[in-house]
Structure formats: structure tokens, C-alpha cells
Amino acid sequence: MPPLVARPFFIPSVQARLLLTRFATRSASLNHRAHFAMARDNIKWRRVAPAKDKVPPYSIFMKPIEKSQQDDREYRIVQLENGLQATVIHDASADKAAASLEVAVGHLYDPDDMPGLAHFCEHLLFMGTETYPRENEYSEYLSKNNGSSNAYTATSATNYYFNVATQALPGALSRFAAFFHCPLFAPSCTSRELNAVDSEHKKNHQQDMWRIFQLNKHLSKDGHVWKKFGSGNRESLSKHAKELKKRGLLERSVNGFKTPTGNSLAPTPIPSRGPSPAPSESSQTSETEADGGPVGRETRRRLVEWWTREYCASRMSLCVIGKESVDELSDMVAEMFSPILNRGRDALPMINDHPFGQNEMGTLVSVQTIMDFHALEISFPLDYQPPNWRHKPASFLAHFTGHEGPGSLHSYLKNKGWITGLSSGAQNLARGFGMFKITAYLTTEGFQNHREITLATFKYLNLLRSSPFPSWNQSEISTIASTRFRFSEKKRPDDYAVWLAEHMSWPVPRELVISAPQLTWPWDEKDVVDCEGEVMCKGEREVREVLEGLKVEKGRVVLMAREQEHDKVAAPEQKEKGWESEPWYGTKYRVERFDDQFFKEASSPNDIPQLFLPGPNEFIPTNLDVDKREVAEPLQRPHLIRETPLSSLWHKKDDQFWVPKARVIIEIRSPFANASPKASVMSRLFTDLVVDSLTEFSYDADLAGLSYNFASHPLGVFVALSGYNDKLPLLARHVLESVKNLKVDPERLNVMKEEVKRQWQNFFLGQSYTISEYYGRYLITEKQWTLQEKLPEIAAVTPEEIQAHAEQLLSTVNIRMLVLGNMYKSEAIGIVEMAENILAPKPIAPSDVLDRSLLLPPACNYIWATTVPNPNEPNSSLTYYLHLGSLLDQHFRVVTSLLAQILSEPAFNVLRTKEQLGYIVSCSAWHLAGESEKGLRLVVQSEKPPPYLEERVEAFLGGMKKTIEEMSDEEFQEQKKGLERKWTEKPKNIGEETNRYWGHIDSGFLDFLRRAKDAEVLQSVTKDDVLSIFLSHIHPSSPNRSKLSVHLRSQKPPPKKVGLAARTAFKTLVKESTIPVDQHESGEEEFADDEEDPLITDFAKHWHGLLAPSADPETMKKLLLEIPKLVEQHPVQGEGEDNEGTQKREGVTYIEDVKAFKASLKPSGDPKPIVEWGDLPLSKF
């Protein structure tokens, strides 16, 4: 793979805060960032005082910002008086605006006694502000204006971002800015957001990526902050407060306990939380105890204290992209973000101490995985790399260690049959230190030879140390980077805003803030230095310095596999040592030091002749000309320029992006590709073998910006090519020839079989909701083989069968092709003719190979229930599907799209935010196979059982009737406007444009102008139209609606909790027993006003401690045995309700025989063009 590039105690009013900012931070205005102090006098800033009353002064960076020649946007960097620095971007053609704010503090800055506090802050920060107190005000505003938002907590930074329709940017930015100067940290949301953090952690608990990431952190030197548990959970965040409460250090209040006084803990002045449309018992209870009781209040107090200290304006980098001029954007930023306080904190706190000490280096860590895979990762401590932005020495080395061409480490290990893939690169783990990693994905044989693989890696590094680096190596890397930068296309605006906000903290001249992270400068042969007696250029010296750190005595090897696989290769003394357990995820591991012999071999010169450095890259493009012809308006669709019985070719010459790039999709449909489970398996193995055979050839092309994909799908196989059009036909020819002429290598087939088997088996160990979604799709797709049907077929497949299958698959086909970009009609025709000549197939009619869905009958209510395959996965999942109807009915299609949008945000707000069912909650439209039918689908992943989840989903849908009925005309028009903006949004690059067109070609409907036409029809849609379809197709009381749900039930029952009713009943039993209890009053209130119900074990342990001094053992034992009975009699909401899924609901048909169920459904109709475009025989282009 290519180189890798995971409230103060008193908050003043907004007005007072603005004054404090203006007067208290003036002295810190322009010199707040230590790393910008370099050449400060040479950087030109100009202070401006806008004429607008509400806009405070700010400073403008006067040098022009270096950008791509292709970039038509206008940039400006401004710095506010409080120290916040912002990049504002004027994009005259934008129809989507965005913003991202990065705070230079992440989870490594959590208090030691509250792991996960930065992450908890990210969650609770969104729950209302002084200026916009409703907790879903922000998300609701974005949803109505074709927008969305998200945030993430990293190690040294936390990033918040959104996108929205350009006209709505001022309103969105005002709501966004308030999070950073007047958040409420609403007490009513404390417990729910603690639950959200906890649910997020549980979602990740069985995911190897998270488990191994935390283990690597755990195995740091003592006392290092890298050890911290960044995501946090409810226990890690509330443990300190619970200990204080247990010691009686949280003072008692009228209703129980209180934390130290302060305005930050006062009730929210305006209610931030609206009622649930159909509240459950638990959500009703949480209205009064949602602050989490004394523990929750103390946790929130600590959060506010931490936020007050750490969220400082000078630590914030902001990027705003909009259609407004840079002057308007600058004023907007100054007005909205100047109220943020500069608290005098270190602007960019650094952690220069590396987590690897002597005890961590030179070791092998064996790790047990959940999923079935083998991998080996070698890590080396690395300095923080952004200061090396000019020559990027670590990236230079990654170019070699991650190379896949002849002579590479990848090529050598692959030819030995030991790996399926390899990646390498530098990672900035935190602001101050990084890691250089080489990761190999192993075959079974490779795992058995992991020692040899590790030695070969060190041999390759020794080869690099002993080899000269001609300047053309760096020059080639520089050329590739500069070409990529020169012709970089626009990204989605929020992606770009996040990228820029992240990189504004790099120590580069401000005018290079965009270019420096993307460009690599050639080595200056005149800039020489003496390096231990050897004269070399400065760039090479930087490389040699990094390379010196990549030695065996400084590395750590992590070997990943399941326990039984480790047992096969472990020495007897290792097995005797046993396994240790990481505290947060329970990941099993053991650590051993390399023996002296290994150190000796790994330090010796390279003696593997198959290893050598790569030569020049012949795929670097030389013709980068673009024939730019000004057009009044870009064409809205491709044109059919060639059609034969064998193929149809659609083409559009780029008329809006003007880059020397193109995209080509060649879909080869065959009736043999998916004829049986075994045929489906062989189609997959065939495509994998082709890709495997092309690795060495295609790697240089990929580096040079020319890539391809070849894969199977239910209707056949497809080739997708993208990149610089100069040499795209050359790559296309080589790929197609490899497809046609593949000679199956039995050894590589065995590797591919092993890999496919692992991937499919591991799918069932993934997130519960992905599995329920998979089954939901399967039940309503006409022709799809399940993974369970395909897995048994893998083992028996032979090379001869693959060879015969490939020939049969390609013998009779229909080809659909799209060419879009900087290619003329003649060039596109040349590629399709080349494909026809190379493959030389017989034609079949397009109607012979089609995708169809299965239609639920009217007035049906189906449930298919099964278990989560992973026995240790605590989360169940519900996929709830309602069939709507045909996508070919334009008015119906438009109304149901608007209905789906109206339901989406409330579903998240009610089911996740308010009812806290789980971290994964989504409501959206589902387009079925064949793209002729659609439905509405809700998915919830939760520790609650699926029957309860379905009950809550139906309660939500029932409550939405009133919401829609009472929706004001103004709000309804806002919803319509948001959907219109979504449909009229322009593609941002060639890739997006290609995807839009391809969906219509692939489906066969050819409805290229659907978005624009639907936007016109939308204008006439009324609220009555929406309500009518809601009542007939969605509302649970509808007698005609068609509903199917998949209940995926966890095999791991959640630990029993003791609800308020059970606790009250037990205290009554204690009183009736006449046993005198020490600290009786404290015992009654221990769990009284926490919203978090205690685990049955904790509750029993607590009462055992209270009863033991005064009760005889038999009486105490008898009392404690009543606790489980009371829990059964008074279950916590959602926990005592058919956990096993055995109770049958009235009016529901339970699917027992899936095949019979699918056979009973009617398939959707065959697709046919909605529009006859009449492009042939003569195209307009």
C-alpha cells in the first residue's frame, strides 16, 4: 500500500464576556503561538477596526496564501484579539458552506482520575447554549438547511465541524460559535451523555482496532500520558465522584446530595430539553433525575472546571468556507468568535517525551484478537514530524518500506506466500511525538514464519542504511506531490475545513499553511552539511537521522492473532508464562524480549538478494494538457455515443473541473457470475487473483496518481479506472489483458481462499447493526446468496475450476461503460473497442442480467429473529423496514423523500439523545436492489432487547403524527427548502459527478435529470401530501402498511440492574425485618437520586456491608436472596421484557423459513429507460 499519511464556576454573560475578551487579551493578541514567533517581524499583519458596531478589531495576514493553480477560491487568515486564528475561504461557486474548529487539547490532557473527560466534553458541549438553549437547536437547524455535523476527540486535539447550505451559514455559525463561549453543559443532559459515551465504548469493546490501540497505549513507560484511556466510559468518568460520595465528601442537599456550590451547577435557565413525543417510563423518570444525582453533578462540575481551564481561544484554529466575500467572512468570524475567552494557557501544548522507554523497545508483544486474522506490526519511536514539513524524511523512507514493486519487502514476502498486504508510514501520535510503523498482514504460513518476516524487515532497513539515495529519488517524490497539488480537485467543504483546521497548528509560515503539508521540496544539493565526516545535503541528512532510529533495539513488534494460533507458534516457556489482561478492554497479551541471536541477525547486513531499491517510476504523467473550452452552463448528463449488441458507451467531456484526469467504469455483466453460491465464490476469487497478479505493475501507477479497481458483484465484474488521463489507456489495456489471460497460480489461490474465508467469517464478528442491516437487505433482494451459503464452497474450489469459471464468465456478456473527464469521444470509443477486442465475448441482451428486489405485500407485519453471532457482543440490533413504493412515480418519490428527511433528525433526537437506546441510531430512506422501489428504514443498536427497541421505534413513529400535524407552515417550508438545496447541490469533483451518472446507467433507468426535476416537483408538495403518506405507509395504526423487522439478539445478557421500584421494595423488607442497620440513613440514599441504576452485584455488596454488623448470617442471607426476586418483579425499563425473544406479539407473522418467505414475495419489475434521449446515431458532443 502507499505510505500512510485513528463552565467555569461562574460564566459571565455574552456581553460581559466580550468586554473581558477585548480588555483582558489585548496583550496576547498576535504573539500567542510560540511556534509562530519565528521571523515574526517579517510576517505582515494588518490590524483592522471594522465599521460595524458589533464587530471587534482583528488582524489580517497580508501575504498571499500559496494554493493550487486549480484552486479558484480566495483565502484569508485572520487573528482575533483573543488569539484565535481563522482561515476564511470565499468560494463564489459554492452551494454548500462549512466550518471546523479545532481545540489544541485532546484526551491526553484528561485529568488522571477522570479518563475520557475530553470526549465527554465533546458530547455535552452540544447540549444547548445561553443564546440557543434548546439541546437540538443546532442539529435541527442544520437538518432543515441540507446540513450535518460531527466532532471527534483525538489525542492532542478535539475537532468540531459542520456543513450547511450557503444561505444558512450565518445562522449555523452563530449556533456553532456559542458552543465555545457560552455552553450550558445542560445538567438535564449529564446522565444521558454519560450513557452516550458509555454506549460508544461498548460499541467498540469487541473491535480489535480499538482493543489493540489501547493495548499499545497501555504498554507505555510508567507515568506517561499516552497510557490514558481516551474514549472513557461511565465508570471511568464517575468513579472519582462515587468515591467522594462514599467518603461523605459530597454535601447533602434537600433532595439528597449536592456538590460544591457555584453558578455552573444551577439549573438551566431555559429548559434545554423538549419532551419525547412518546416517552417511555425511563425517559419520564430521567426528566427529574437526568443530572445523574450527586455523582452526575460532581462529574459535570469537574467537566466545567476542566473546560474553563483548557478551552482557551488561543488554542483554537478555525476554518470557515462560504459564498460570502473574505471581508464578510472575516467580520462574521470576529463578531461570533471574539467572545471566547483567552485564558492565558499555552497555545499549543507539546508532549516531547516519547512513550517508549528502554523497557518498551526490543520487545515482542503477542496479542489475542477477537476476529480471525494474522498481522505483525513493527513500531519505532519517531520525533514529531510537522517541523520537517519541507523534506518529509519519514515519508521518504515510507516510500521504500511500503513499496510493492520488484525488489520491495512486499514483493519478497508475497512471493514467499507469507503476506497478503503490507503498509508503512509515519504517524503523529500526539503533538510532540510520533511513530514509524511497518504492518504486514499475514497468511497462516506467514504467521508461522513471523520471526523470519520480522528479520526480513530489519534486513530491508539495513539495506536502506547501506544504500546511497540519488537525488532523483526525492525529485520524483517531489514531482508526484507537486502534480497532485497542482491538479487537486475540491473536496466536500466540511472535509476540507477539517483538514485545514487540523493543519493550521503546523509550524509552517502562514502563507504555506495549505501547500506545506501537501508538497515535498527537492533536496538542495548546495545546502550541504557534515554528517559524521560525510558530506551530504541537508535533506538526505534528515532521512539518515530518521533511519538511524529504525533499528531492532528501538523497535517493538506486535504479533496479532487468536489465542489458538498463538499457541501453535509459542515456545513452551511462553505458554507457561500465561497471559496478562489490559484493564479497559480485557485484551489478553504477553511481552517478551528478543533474544541475543535475534538482535544479532537483525543487525547484520542484508543478505537477501531479492531485496533491492526501486527504479524510476514510468507512470509519472508527462502530458498534463487540458482543453478548456468555456461553456455557458455545464452539461447535465453524459451522452450515449456508441451502442452495439455487446456494449453501450456513455461519455461526457469534462466541462467544469478542468483537470487532466478521467474516470472510466466498465461493468461486465454475465449470467454465470452469480448463478450459484459456488459461482459467486469463484467470481470473487477470480477478481482477487487478478488484482493480486497486478500488484507489482500497478503500484507505480498508483503512486503517480493512476489507480484501478477490479471486483465482482451480483451481476458480474467491473473495472474502474481513475487518475491522470495521459496514461490511463495504458493501465486499462494491462488490466483488461490480465483479466482475460489470467493463469491461476495454485499457491496464490490458496492465499486468496484463506483471505476470503477470513473476511466473511469476520463479518459476523463485527458491529451488530451491520449484520441486521445485511439480513434486512437479503430478505428483500431477489437473488443473493448468503455468506453462510458461500463459506462451505470455498475449500473445494480448485485452480482448474477458477480457470474454467473465468472463461465462462467472460464468454457471454453485456458491457455498460461510462467515460467522464479529460478524454474526447474518440478516446472513449478507443477504450471500449479495446475492451471488446481483448475480451472477445459473445453478446447477451441487457435484460438477461438484472437486479430485482422483493416487494412486501400490503398490510403485513413480519419479524425475523436471530442471534448475534459473536457470543461476547453485548449489543443487540433492530433493523425496522417499512415499504413505501415505486421510485418511478415522481410525485410519490418526492413526497416520501421529504417525509424521510422530516423523520430523520427527530428519530436521532428521541431514540438516541433522549431515550438513550444506544449509540447507533439512524433513520433514512432505503433504495432497494434494482433501484425501482424504496422504503424507510430505522436501525438501532443497543443493549436493550430487540422487542423493546421495536416498541420504542413504534412509539416514536406514533408520536410523529402529532409533530407533523402541528408543524407550522414556516417549518414545513424550511424542510422543503433543505431538501431542494440537497437536490440542487452541484458535484464537487469528477468523482462525485461520475457517481451521480453511474447510478442511472447501472440501474438502466437513465434518469439523469431526476434531481433537478424532483426539485421542481417539490415546490407543489403540501403538508397534507406528507401526512397522507405518513398515515398510510408509516404510522403503526395503518391497516395497509408493509413492515419487516430484523431482531438480532445478543447472546450476552446485560448485567442485571436494580431499578428504583426494586430498591424501594428491598428497603421496605429491611425495615420490616427490624434489623438495626448502621448508617441506615446513608444506606437509604446511596442509590436514591442517581439516574444510573446500580448493578445487582453492587447493590447486594452495599447492603451486605450495612447488614453484616447487626444481622445474623442466616437472616442476612435470606434478605439478600430477595434482591434477585425483586429485580425480576420490578425490572428496569427494557430489561425484563422478553430478553430471550420468546414472547410472540399479536398481529405479527414470525418468519421461520427464510427461503419460503422470499419465495412468497413478488419481484420488482424490470428496469427500462424512463427517458429516450435520442443521442444516436449522432452525439451532440
UniProtKB/TrEMBL annotation:
<dbReference type="GO" id="GO:0005739">
    <property type="term" value="C:mitochondrion"/>
</dbReference>
<keyword id="KW-0479">Metal-binding</keyword>
<dbReference type="GO" id="GO:0005829">
    <property type="term" value="C:cytosol"/>
</dbReference>
<dbReference type="InterPro" id="IPR054734">
    <property type="entry name" value="PqqF-like_C_4"/>
</dbReference>
<feature type="domain" description="Peptidase M16 C-terminal">
    <location>
        <begin position="299"/>
        <end position="472"/>
    </location>
</feature>
<dbReference type="InterPro" id="IPR001431">
    <property type="entry name" value="Pept_M16_Zn_BS"/>
</dbReference>
<dbReference type="GO" id="GO:0043171">
    <property type="term" value="P:peptide catabolic process"/>
</dbReference>
<comment type="similarity">
    <text>Belongs to the peptidase M16 family.</text>
</comment>
<keyword id="KW-0862">Zinc</keyword>
<dbReference type="GO" id="GO:0046872">
    <property type="term" value="F:metal ion binding"/>
</dbReference>
<feature type="compositionally biased region" description="Polar residues">
    <location>
        <begin position="256"/>
        <end position="266"/>
    </location>
</feature>
<feature type="region of interest" description="Disordered">
    <location>
        <begin position="249"/>
        <end position="297"/>
    </location>
</feature>
<dbReference type="Pfam" id="PF00675">
    <property type="entry name" value="Peptidase_M16"/>
</dbReference>
<dbReference type="InterPro" id="IPR050626">
    <property type="entry name" value="Peptidase_M16"/>
</dbReference>
<feature type="compositionally biased region" description="Pro residues">
    <location>
        <begin position="268"/>
        <end position="278"/>
    </location>
</feature>
<dbReference type="InterPro" id="IPR032632">
    <property type="entry name" value="Peptidase_M16_M"/>
</dbReference>
<feature type="domain" description="Coenzyme PQQ synthesis protein F-like C-terminal lobe">
    <location>
        <begin position="898"/>
        <end position="998"/>
    </location>
</feature>
<dbReference type="GO" id="GO:0004222">
    <property type="term" value="F:metalloendopeptidase activity"/>
</dbReference>
<dbReference type="InterPro" id="IPR007863">
    <property type="entry name" value="Peptidase_M16_C"/>
</dbReference>
<dbReference type="Pfam" id="PF22456">
    <property type="entry name" value="PqqF-like_C_4"/>
</dbReference>
<keyword id="KW-0378">Hydrolase</keyword>
<dbReference type="Pfam" id="PF05193">
    <property type="entry name" value="Peptidase_M16_C"/>
</dbReference>
<feature type="domain" description="Peptidase M16 N-terminal">
    <location>
        <begin position="89"/>
        <end position="222"/>
    </location>
</feature>
<keyword id="KW-0482">Metalloprotease</keyword>
<dbReference type="InterPro" id="IPR011765">
    <property type="entry name" value="Pept_M16_N"/>
</dbReference>
<dbReference type="GO" id="GO:0051603">
    <property type="term" value="P:proteolysis involved in protein catabolic process"/>
</dbReference>
<feature type="region of interest" description="Disordered">
    <location>
        <begin position="1038"/>
        <end position="1058"/>
    </location>
</feature>
<feature type="domain" description="Peptidase M16 middle/third">
    <location>
        <begin position="485"/>
        <end position="791"/>
    </location>
</feature>
<dbReference type="InterPro" id="IPR011249">
    <property type="entry name" value="Metalloenz_LuxS/M16"/>
</dbReference>
<keyword id="KW-0645">Protease</keyword>
<dbReference type="Pfam" id="PF16187">
    <property type="entry name" value="Peptidase_M16_M"/>
</dbReference>
<protein>
    <recommendedName>
        <fullName>Peptidase M16 N-terminal domain-containing protein</fullName>
    </recommendedName>
</protein>
